[in-house]
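User: Can you write out an input/output pair for a complex, sequences first and structure second?

Assistant: Here is one pair. Inputs:
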Amino acid sequence: MNNFLNPLIETISQAIKKQQFGQEPKELYEPISYIMSLGGKRLRPVLTLLGYRLFQEDIRPAIKPAMAVETFHNFTLVHDDIMDKAPLRRGQATVHTKWNDNIAILSGDVMMIKVYDLLLDVAPELLPSVIRAFNNNATEVCEGQQKDMNFETRNDVSTDEYIDMIRQKTAVLLGLALQLGAMIAKAPEKTQQDLYQFAVDLGIGFQLKDDLLDVYGDQAKFGKQIGGDIIENKKTFLLINAVALATGSTKATLQQWIEATDFDATEKVQAVTQIYDQLGIKALTEQKMNDYFDQAFAILKQMDIGDQQKEWLSGFAQMVINREK
Amino acid sequence: MNNFLNPLIETISQAIKKQQFGQEPKELYEPISYIMSLGGKRLRPVLTLLGYRLFQEDIRPAIKPAMAVETFHNFTLVHDDIMDKAPLRRGQATVHTKWNDNIAILSGDVMMIKVYDLLLDVAPELLPSVIRAFNNNATEVCEGQQKDMNFETRNDVSTDEYIDMIRQKTAVLLGLALQLGAMIAKAPEKTQQDLYQFAVDLGIGFQLKDDLLDVYGDQAKFGKQIGGDIIENKKTFLLINAVALATGSTKATLQQWIEATDFDATEKVQAVTQIYDQLGIKALTEQKMNDYFDQAFAILKQMDIGDQQKEWLSGFAQMVINREK
């Protein structure tokens, strides 16, 4: 399978390396080159190339739209990292740490403008629908981020609200990425919608997997601090369920750890993980995650595309499902 | 003249009142309604309506593009106010003060997306060139803001660099606003370029007038604290020239005031204004400002439009030239 995806990843990596958004003032453009070069899995632009490749052999017309999606994604990282006061991104200093908040705000703003420059590459007759689809999803990403911030100070977040938040913050951009490729390839509207829904469901599963890896991942493979979410009381699917299900002394202990201000991080991670284990939170989250992966495959199965195309999408899904980082 | 501009201002005010960008989460959309409702002179959207009205009677097709320009302008205010740590905007609390920095970043981001939604209202065949023109100028606005921030820590800013900065940060958006109206009205390319240059020159004069009003304005009319730029050592055209022209004890006194950390604000404003007077900075700035206004009128004179149309543009220019706030 990777034999198929690798050239797509290579194509987008080369395009990112070659992309030059501007020169002066350098305070504005160096941070953009920096964040774009930090790497990551490039899932979103690969989805755009893949969405196009399903219908057309030569993927070159999908490269700039794929870059638009990746640039938008990186823009959200730059601004989210300011909001979250995150020091590190992919193991490197975040833009606002390496430069400062103002530069991170403004270079992020320029990235947003450049997203639309890249979208101008699509055929003019497609531009209105491409921008409309892009904007609807980009707006949802911002709404998801605001909800995520709102959740920080709320104690009554339901799992439905949580799923809706990660759908907006994370999953819809995967949906848009795949749909965009299909749009540019002029795929039928119904197929575009199926591809969108397939990738959104995959994206929700992807984020639930992320919540799981934070607690149950392999430190060496995951690359991030195991238990980071626990230390910060991040309202993940795991914590929301644990708070809802815990009773008696377990509830009290969990609450103590949540409220603790002075604690040993390792001790907190161990204690909360133990509560998760006790309450069967891992299985519960895996169940929910697999529900979404199953939904994605159900959509894929009935999709009006060739078997070879289904195999490619299935291969991409497997990569997401099996990820350990 | 105002008899002509007033209906345009009224049209855009009504459109802003009716515009609803979204509902939930309210933390994201209330700040947008708030900043958009604070008013201001609405110069930019009026320019777009005017640019259209030069060629077409019924201005309705220009309303959404005019809203796009005003929304972009307000987006820059929201983000610039975070960067400048400004507590007040138009006499009211800035978004980041009334809510917080994160909400100001994110609601600004949503405004940017909504700008492109509003631009989708233009005829599809015009969309690529509209977005391209918009993006080129929007990028320059960001570059101008970055240069303005860079100037804060530099002591060798030349007047040419300063003019270039205000051209990017302030003037090009006026140029784009007017050109956009003409674009949508399908005016000839050459006339569009003339209109752009006319409004850019007007915009540079407009900003130089702003620099002057900060020192020599009438407090009651200006609405802002007189001498605000002096108190903050803001590198305006006045200060840059004063630093360049002062010699001997005047230079030393000016330098002392610039470096002073503990001072009486009124005393500093008086002392620096006195140095400006001594060096003839007011006349020098007026000269430069009038050069740009003259250039604008020279372009207007040779423009390939009717006399009535020239009168409208001239009336707009007079309003900018005569402004006391």
